[in-house]
User: What shape does this take?
Amino acid sequence: MRRSYQRENVVDLAAYKMHIEKTNRLLGIPKSYAKDYALSLHIEENDLVEIGKDIFDRTQFLASKAESQWYEMYESAKNDRIELHVVSAFRSVEYQANIIQRKLKKGLKLSDILRVSAAPGYSEHHSGCALDLTTTGIDALSENFDQTKAFGWLQQNGEKFGFSLSYPNNQERKIIYEPWHWSCL
Assistant: This one.
């Protein structure tokens, strides 16, 4: 059974931008972040659909417009004997801020954190159209994912389902190479 989750509509873009600026200021993220990292602002999706559990047994959601694309891709991979497992899907601005706060509390430098975690407001996960994926036999969020049959399958077939690799190797943004991060934006 399809379970939808309606979040409160974000109708005031100016208020959303102010919320992002305040959140990032509290985290110590510079105002020049978007320009410095060549990232765009992403509005939180409010029309979300449950897609099941991730590898950590947490319920995950995607934008309703991305759900069918994900299931078609998942089923096609499965038919080709490729296992795709969700590590993460939709994330709210608050969830993204908490990720960064946890890393700061561990003593990591903000500049290092921002190479692996987009600042709140700039994560593709806010759109509900991004997935972090893994497969059996590999650590989640590992660059070695690009050595798997699952990654090869995604490279050959992802675009058929509207998904592409967001952070390829040697890209202009300051985000690290993330072979696990696929988006249908």
